[in-house]
Automatic annotation (TrEMBL):
This is Uncharacterized protein.
């Protein structure tokens, strides 16, 4: 078989016309420590179902040193108390705990810069004993 110059020219043009683009998927952000997703200062809008009122304050979420998978929520309930919570993925669990006359427990979920929390606060220090059922949305 005899290969001619025009054939080689056509073959070269055809090879150059073939272009393959390889797109790599966007990188997935993986935190070495899941708590990093929760840490920071949040502006909170809290709704009390018990009293049908909205309260506004800030909380600071920090890693609990010496407690892997745990964070502290400082100024929780706008009452200056520091609550210990467990982080599992995007979920936050506040186990039952008694702090400064408050019994607190609840849970939450984070989505980007928004933290939604649902919890109860049993206030033993108030003039009358009550349980406050709350939900809050916090943004950083």
């Amino acid at each position: 078989m005899k290969i001619t110059v025009p054939f080689l020219l056509i073959l070269a043009v055809a090879i150059q016309a073939c272009h393959i683009d390889i797109e790599e998927p966007a990188p997935v952000i993986v935190y070495a420590d899941e708590r990093d997703y929760f840490t920071g200062v949040f502006n909170v809008e809290e709704y009390s179902e018990t009293f049908d009122v909205h309260n506004y304050y800030t909380i600071d979420v920090v890693k609990a040193a010496g407690y892997p998978g745990m964070v502290y929520l400082r100024n929780f309930y706008g009452a200056g108390v520091m609550v210990l919570a467990e982080v599992e993925g995007v979920h936050l669990y506040i186990p039952h705990q008694e702090i400064n006359g408050f019994e607190i427990e609840g849970e939450g979920i984070i989505n980007d810069h928004r933290l939604d929390l649902y919890y109860t606060v049993h206030d033993h220090l108030a003039a009358y004993d009550f349980i406050d059922y709350c939900s809050s949305t916090a943004w950083r």
